[in-house]
Protein backbone atom coordinates (compact mmCIF):
# COMPACT_ATOMS: atom_id res chain seq x y z
CA UNK A 1 0.00 0.00 0.00
CA UNK A 2 1.05 3.59 -0.62
CA UNK A 3 2.93 5.27 2.22
CA UNK A 4 4.11 1.99 3.68
CA UNK A 5 7.64 0.60 3.88
CA UNK A 6 8.91 -2.86 4.74
CA UNK A 7 11.53 -3.04 7.51
CA UNK A 8 13.90 -5.86 8.40
CA UNK A 9 16.52 -5.82 11.16
CA UNK A 10 19.21 -8.48 10.98
CA UNK A 11 22.44 -9.37 12.71
CA UNK A 12 25.87 -8.72 11.18
CA UNK A 13 27.59 -11.03 8.71
CA UNK A 14 25.39 -14.04 7.86
CA UNK A 15 22.23 -12.22 8.95
CA UNK A 16 22.94 -9.51 6.39
CA UNK A 17 24.17 -11.81 3.61
CA UNK A 18 21.07 -14.01 3.95
CA UNK A 19 18.93 -11.05 2.84
CA UNK A 20 20.59 -10.58 -0.56
CA UNK A 21 17.92 -12.47 -2.53
CA UNK A 22 15.05 -10.72 -0.75
CA UNK A 23 16.64 -7.29 -1.30
CA UNK A 24 17.19 -8.06 -5.01
CA UNK A 25 13.52 -9.06 -5.26
CA UNK A 26 12.49 -5.80 -3.55
CA UNK A 27 14.66 -3.87 -6.04
CA UNK A 28 13.07 -5.62 -9.02
CA UNK A 29 9.54 -5.17 -7.61
CA UNK A 30 10.25 -1.49 -6.81
CA UNK A 31 9.23 -2.11 -3.20
CA UNK A 32 10.38 0.34 -0.51
CA UNK A 33 12.33 -1.64 2.09
CA UNK A 34 14.58 -0.52 4.93
CA UNK A 35 17.18 -3.15 5.78
CA UNK A 36 18.92 -2.47 9.10
CA UNK A 37 22.01 -4.60 9.59
CA UNK A 38 24.31 -4.95 12.55
CA UNK A 39 28.07 -4.64 12.10
CA UNK A 40 31.31 -5.05 14.00
CA UNK A 41 32.31 -2.15 16.25
CA UNK A 42 33.75 0.76 14.26
CA UNK A 43 37.16 0.42 15.95
CA UNK A 44 37.37 -3.23 14.87
CA UNK A 45 36.45 -2.76 11.20
CA UNK A 46 39.01 -4.35 8.90
CA UNK A 47 40.86 -5.99 11.80
CA UNK A 48 39.44 -9.50 11.60
CA UNK A 49 36.53 -8.97 13.98
CA UNK A 50 33.87 -11.67 14.06
CA UNK A 51 31.46 -11.33 11.10
CA UNK A 52 33.26 -8.22 9.80
CA UNK A 53 32.66 -8.06 6.05
CA UNK A 54 32.23 -5.11 3.70
CA UNK A 55 28.44 -5.14 3.82
CA UNK A 56 28.04 -1.75 2.12
CA UNK A 57 29.81 -2.96 -1.04
CA UNK A 58 27.63 -6.07 -1.06
CA UNK A 59 24.45 -3.98 -1.28
CA UNK A 60 25.71 -1.05 -3.38
CA UNK A 61 24.22 -2.43 -6.62
CA UNK A 62 20.99 -3.62 -4.97
CA UNK A 63 19.97 -0.58 -2.94
CA UNK A 64 19.15 3.06 -3.63
CA UNK A 65 21.38 4.01 -0.69
CA UNK A 66 23.83 2.23 1.62
CA UNK A 67 24.94 4.01 4.78
CA UNK A 68 26.91 3.14 7.89
CA UNK A 69 26.01 5.12 11.02
CA UNK A 70 29.16 6.41 12.75
CA UNK A 71 27.80 8.14 15.85
CA UNK A 72 24.77 7.74 18.12
CA UNK A 73 23.50 11.24 17.22
CA UNK A 74 23.29 10.18 13.55
CA UNK A 75 20.95 7.18 14.06
CA UNK A 76 17.63 9.07 13.83
CA UNK A 77 18.57 11.45 10.96
CA UNK A 78 20.05 8.55 8.97
CA UNK A 79 16.95 6.39 9.40
CA UNK A 80 14.62 9.30 8.50
CA UNK A 81 16.58 9.98 5.30
CA UNK A 82 16.78 6.27 4.42
CA UNK A 83 13.00 5.83 4.75
CA UNK A 84 12.33 8.88 2.55
CA UNK A 85 14.87 7.64 -0.01
CA UNK A 86 13.27 4.18 -0.15
CA UNK A 87 9.86 5.71 -0.86
CA UNK A 88 10.87 8.61 -3.13
CA UNK A 89 11.08 8.49 -6.92
CA UNK A 90 11.14 4.88 -8.00
CA UNK A 91 10.68 3.02 -4.68
CA UNK A 92 13.30 0.48 -3.68
CA UNK A 93 15.42 -0.94 -0.88
CA UNK A 94 17.93 0.96 1.27
CA UNK A 95 20.55 -0.47 3.64
CA UNK A 96 21.58 1.09 6.95
CA UNK A 97 24.46 -0.48 8.87
CA UNK A 98 24.54 0.02 12.65
CA UNK A 99 27.89 -0.94 14.21
CA UNK A 100 27.47 -2.54 17.62
CA UNK A 101 29.23 0.28 19.50
CA UNK A 102 26.58 2.72 18.19
CA UNK A 103 23.80 0.53 19.61
CA UNK A 104 25.17 -0.23 23.07
CA UNK A 105 24.65 2.08 26.08
CA UNK A 106 27.41 4.55 26.96
CA UNK A 107 28.53 2.80 30.18
CA UNK A 108 29.00 -0.55 28.39
CA UNK A 109 30.98 0.96 25.50
CA UNK A 110 33.13 2.97 27.90
CA UNK A 111 33.85 -0.14 30.00
CA UNK A 112 34.54 -2.34 26.96
CA UNK A 113 36.77 0.10 25.07
CA UNK A 114 38.96 0.86 28.03
CA UNK A 115 37.63 3.77 30.01
CA UNK A 116 39.10 2.38 33.24
CA UNK A 117 42.54 1.13 32.14
CA UNK A 118 45.46 3.44 32.78
CA UNK A 119 48.03 3.60 30.03
CA UNK A 120 51.68 2.82 30.76
CA UNK A 121 54.30 5.06 29.26
CA UNK A 122 53.79 7.56 26.47
CA UNK A 123 52.34 5.03 24.03
CA UNK A 124 49.80 3.83 26.59
CA UNK A 125 48.77 7.38 27.40
CA UNK A 126 48.33 8.22 23.70
CA UNK A 127 46.23 5.10 23.13
CA UNK A 128 44.14 5.93 26.21
CA UNK A 129 43.66 9.52 25.00
CA UNK A 130 42.59 8.26 21.55
CA UNK A 131 40.07 5.80 22.99
CA UNK A 132 38.58 8.39 25.36
CA UNK A 133 38.26 10.84 22.44
CA UNK A 134 36.64 8.12 20.31
CA UNK A 135 34.04 7.41 22.99
CA UNK A 136 33.34 11.12 23.54
CA UNK A 137 32.77 11.64 19.81
CA UNK A 138 30.69 8.45 19.46
CA UNK A 139 28.21 9.71 22.07
CA UNK A 140 28.48 13.51 21.57
CA UNK A 141 24.98 14.93 21.27
CA UNK A 142 23.42 11.50 21.74
CA UNK A 143 20.94 12.67 24.38
CA UNK A 144 19.71 15.75 22.52
CA UNK A 145 16.11 15.54 21.27
CA UNK A 146 15.73 14.62 17.61
CA UNK A 147 12.94 15.31 15.13
CA UNK A 148 11.42 11.91 14.42
CA UNK A 149 8.67 13.05 12.04
CA UNK A 150 8.81 11.53 8.55
CA UNK A 151 10.64 13.47 5.87
CA UNK A 152 8.60 14.38 2.77
CA UNK A 153 8.50 11.70 0.10
CA UNK A 154 9.20 12.92 -3.44
CA UNK A 155 6.89 11.14 -5.90
CA UNK A 156 7.11 12.58 -9.41
CA UNK A 157 3.74 12.74 -11.15
CA UNK A 158 3.23 13.03 -14.90
CA UNK A 159 1.64 16.18 -16.28
CA UNK A 160 -1.37 16.02 -18.60
CA UNK A 161 0.94 16.83 -21.53
CA UNK A 162 3.22 13.92 -20.67
CA UNK A 163 0.28 11.54 -20.41
CA UNK A 164 -1.15 12.76 -23.71
CA UNK A 165 -4.66 13.94 -22.85
TrEMBL record:
Its cofactor is thiamine diphosphate. One of its GO terms (biological process) is isoleucine biosynthetic process. It comes from Fregata magnificens. Residues 3-58 form the Thiamine pyrophosphate enzyme N-terminal TPP-binding domain. One of its GO terms (cellular component) is acetolactate synthase complex. PANTHER family: 2-HYDROXYACYL-COA LYASE 2, THIAMINE PYROPHOSPHATE ENZYMES. GO terms for molecular function: acetolactate synthase activity; flavin adenine dinucleotide binding; thiamine pyrophosphate binding. Pfam families: TPP_enzyme_N (PF02776). It comes from the Eukaryota. This is ILVBL protein. CDD domains: TPP_PYR_POX_like. Belongs to the TPP enzyme family.
Amino acid sequence: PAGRIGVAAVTAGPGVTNTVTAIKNAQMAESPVLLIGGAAASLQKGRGALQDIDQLSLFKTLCKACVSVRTVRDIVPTLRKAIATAQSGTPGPVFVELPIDVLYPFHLVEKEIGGTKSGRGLRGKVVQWYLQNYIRNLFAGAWEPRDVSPLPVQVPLATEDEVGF
